[in-house]
Input
Amino acid sequence: MRPVRFNIHPKEAVTSTAISITEAPEGYTGDGFFTAKLSDVVGLARKNSIWPLPFATSCCGIEFMATAAAHYDLARFGAERMAFTPRQCDLLMVMGTIAKKMGPVLRQVYLQMAEPRWVLAVGACASSGGIFDSYSVLQGIDQIIPVDVYVPGCPPRPEAILDGFMKIQELVGQESIRRRNSTQYKALLDTYGIE
Ligand code: SF4
Output
């Protein structure tokens, strides 16, 4: 009988030297103090503590499960706290084919999320309807809600989903804390009939 082998993390992977500390925002430092712009500090905190709401309807959802599991480990980005409660989440991850009948449900979930909120369209179906150029399938979720980042692929590999997630982190980190009150943002929501 062949011996069973387990992949165990090497010891150094769990020592403190393997932990990287996120970079501090630009600011002024001196003896015993550090100052920075409030929006940079808020951005730093937000981008490293995103709470995703996985809205998974089909195959891309399985890729997301792999992304969240141990090998790809979405938790490394501070995003291990999945929730299916829109009021607690700030990132809506839409993964899979969205039928037109499902559209109002997706929109309702988006509307229930508090600001600030971001949307990641994962895979060809969520981005554009994918291969389903059909009367029953929504040809991209951006027909009903605004999307911040699109991840191409059918299905996208977990690396691509992580890349999309990191693009969201960039947006979150750089976003002014007042952007959500800006006229441009309100105009964008207006185009979707959202107040
Ligand atoms: S993009 Fe491809 S893999 Fe993803 S849900 Fe659509 S058909 Fe499935």
The pocket of iron/sulfur cluster is lined by residues 58-60, 96-97, 123-125, 130, 154-155 (CB under 6 Å). The chain has six helices and six strands. Residues 50-174+185-190 form a domain with the Rossmann fold fold (CATH 3.40.50.12280).
